[in-house]
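Below is the record:
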Amino acid sequence: MSEPTPVRVEAYAGASYPQRPTAVWIDARRLEVQNVIRQWRTPDALHFLVDIEDIHRTELIYRNENWFISF
C-alpha cells in the first residue's frame, strides 16, 4: 500500500468515536463504505479494512483525530 492520504470520512459513533466508518469523500464524491472487513488498533491509530463503492478494498486509518486512506 502507498503512503496514507488525508481524507474526509463519515463514521458511526455510539459510545465512542469512531466505531465504524460509513462513507468517504473523494474528489467531491461521497462513496459508501459497503463492508467493514476487519478492525484493529495499533499504538498510534485505529485501522479499518473496508470495501468502498467504486474503490473496493482499502484501509482507512484514524490517527490524531484525522482520517487517512491507503489505496
Summary: The chain has a mean pLDDT of 93.
